[in-house]
Specification:
The complex is a heterodimer of chains A (about 425) and B (about 180). With about 425 residues, chain A is mainly beta. Chain A has four helices and 31 strands. The termini of chain B are far apart. Classes of the chains: A mainly beta (about 425), B alpha+beta (about 180). Chain B: Part of the Tol-Pal system, which plays a role in outer membrane invagination during cell division and is important for maintaining outer membrane integrity.
């Protein structure tokens, strides 16, 4: 039964994939204690081009939590259990070992077998078989990396997730979706006018975003399944800053009508508009808590912009940030315990986190023009936009600040990342 | 359990469909906006109404010798107060709008690039609203005005210095049809 569930959830992610990357990822730091793991190249039959082990190794290395060991020096390269000689792997300090094979089936499908082994205890931690089409090899590799990550760290992996972001190339804006490792970018929509604020629906099947294609900001929701899109909010003035409720039924949005920005909620089909804030100040950037009971938002009601929270039905607001004169773009971790936001610190805009219970603040990033923080579904990493050499780029930092990644795009600006939900 | 399995299978089918469709569908969306962008560039309608109403041979809104052709109000850093040097400009547009009750304007607020996009969108909106309030005081009806903000998305000047920033902290007055 477990295996069946795993296979099903695998098919969820099994999009036909080509192997091109628009984003290249550079790892700047790593966790203090990395798990040493040997990822042995999979045995292959003709017709299986991609090396799944290479993708698995890259995923694990990118997380910053693993030290992927060089295996070429080890004489025996096992592909199945009887061939494993544990002392050889203990000798290169491997704690864990993965082996596997790719076999071509009649009709061109592939059978991928994989085992995760504990070198010290000399036993198997996981063993799975996948029956896939040839185009599903990268997706299968990410699923294998997720299993390894979860078995060895106790937390779910996010290698099978997707990210959305905006590119600006030669004056044209494009909303794109790619795998979490930057591969397989696909354009969801593009326009000569600005596109901002992409937000994933909680089930990962839709994106809300703000497009200026009609010369004013309008909130759209577009299905990633059919490509069809609907106008959710097109009222007089601005329509912006969409944020999904956790059940996906509603969006918090920001409208201006003829005055300043105020927070509203609206059903995802554009009906049932309700105003939540009633001030003469700016109230914007709403974000639902994971249980849906609270909305965090940015307001300048006290002078400079600070982060506040209120019940998701409206009412009194409580100020959350006090340190510094510019704290904006609130995002809440999936466990509801951490507030990530953008803090102006000595003229630089940086990603900061605040422990909601204690109020303790930590600045995470060492870049200078950071925007749009977005938690990974497991809460471990925060993806954000920054500027590198005068060009918009994406970066990620672990919630403890130890692991840092930079993702750069060849050709243009890349901005406003949003990390998609877990696939199951 | 069975239900969640069924849901998974359905989702799997939907997502399998998704993999090819967004690529196929993207150009449909793509085709819409540039077409609208190019058609809305025409300023013919504005110039026609100018001829009718003022019986001049030149549209006052586009005549470079007319203050009405000036459309940008610039603001100080982190401020949304219309400075005295822009009062004549805004008042001239107010007078035109009162005399042409069918004319409509979109006031577009803008900011420099510092700070985050959505907050800058809200800051730019304050500047559009500030210009609107001056127009209202001169008797222009709310029905003739829409205030929107581009935030930091439409800089007049490129660059990351005060010279560029001062050009980008502004509100633009755009007549409907322009």
């Amino acid at each position: 039964m477990n295996k069946l569930r795993l296979l099903l959830s695998f098919f969820l992610l099994a999009l036909p994939l080509a192997g091109n990357a628009a984003l290249t990822i550079e790892i700047v730091g790593g966790a203090a204690q990395q798990i040493p793991i040997a990822v042995v190249p999979f045995a292959k039959t003709p017709g299986a081009q991609d090396d799944i082990a290479t993708v698995v190794g890259a995923d694990l290395r990118r997380s910053g939590l693993f030290r992927v060991l060089e295996t070429r020096g080890v004489v025996n390269q096992p592909h199945d259990l009887p061939e494993v000689k544990y002392p050889e792997w203990a000798a290169i300090q491997a704690q864990a070992l993965t082996i596997g094979s790719v076999e071509t089936l009649p009709g061109g499908r592939l059978k991928v077998s994989f085992r995760l082994l504990d070198v010290l205890k000399q036993n198997q931690l996981a063993g799975l078989e996948f029956n896939i089409s040839a185009s599903q090899q990268r997706a299968t590799a990410h699923k294998i990396a997720d299993i390894i990550y979860e078995k060895l760290t106790g937390e779910p992996g996010v290698f099978s997730t997707r990210i959305a972001y905006i590119t600006k190339t030669a004056g044209r804006y494009a909303l794109q979706v790619a795998d979490a490792d930057g591969y397989n970018p696909q354009t969801v929509m593009s326009s000569n006018e600005p596109v901002i604020s992409p937000r994933w629906s909680p089930d990962g099947t839709k994106l809300a975003y703000v497009s200026y294609e009609k010369k004013k900001p309008i909130v759209f929701v577009q299905s990633l399944v059919t490509g069809q899109r609907n106008v959710v909010a097109n009222f007089k003035g601005n329509n912006s800053a969409p944020a999904w409720s956790p059940d996906g039924s509603r969006l918090a949005i920001v409208l201006t009508h003829s005055a300043n920005s105020q927070v509203y909620v609206i059903n995802a089909d554009g009906t049932g508009l309700k105003q939540l804030t009633y001030t003469t100040s700016i109230d914007t950037e709403p974000f639902f808590s994971p249980d849906g009971s609270v909305i965090y938002f940015t307001s300048n009601r006290g002078g400079g912009p600070q982060i506040y929270r209120m019940a998701s039905t409206g009412g009194d607001a409580k100020r959350m940030t006090f340190d510094g004169n510019y704290n904006v773009s609130p995002r809440i971790s999936p466990d509801g315990k951490t507030l990530a936001y953008i803090k102006q610190d000595s003229g630089k805009f940086r990603v900061a986190v605040q422990d909601i219970a204690s109020g303790q603040v930590q600045i995470l990033s060492d870049t200078a023009q950071d925007e749009s923080p977005s938690f990974a579904p497991n809460g471990r990493m925060i993806l954000y936009a920054t500027s590198i050499s005068g060009r918009g780029a994406l970066a990620a930092v672990s919630a403890d600040g130890r692991v840092k990644q930079r993702l750069s795009e060849t050709g243009g600006d890349v901005r406003e990342p949003a990390w998609g939900p877990a696939a199951n | 359990m069975n239900k969640s399995l069924v849901t998974s299978v359905l989702l799997a089918m939907m997502l399998a469909a998704c993999s090819s469709k967004p690529v196929k569908n993207a150009p449909v969306v793509e085709d819409k906006s540039p077409a609208q962008t190019t058609t809305s560039q025409s300023s013919d309608s504005a110039s026609t109404s100018g001829v009718q109403n003022s019986s001049m041979s030149v549209n006052p809104l586009t005549d470079p010798n007319n203050i009405l052709s000036k459309r940008s109000v610039y603001f100080d850093f982190d401020k949304d107060e219309v400075k005295p040097e822009y009062r004549d400009l805004v008042n001239a547009h107010a007078k035109y709008l009162v005399e042409h009750p069918d004319a409509k304007v979109i006031l577009q607020g803008n900011t420099d690039e510092r700070g985050t996009r959505e907050y800058n969108l809200a800051l730019g909106q304050r500047r559009a609203v500030a210009v609107k309030q001056v127009l209202n005081l001169q008797g222009v009806s709310d029905k003739q005005i829409e205030t929107i903000s581009y935030g930091e998305e439409k800089p007049q000047a490129a660059g990351s210095d005060e010279a560029a920033y001062s050009k980008n902290r502004r509100a633009d007055i755009v007549y409907q049809g322009e």
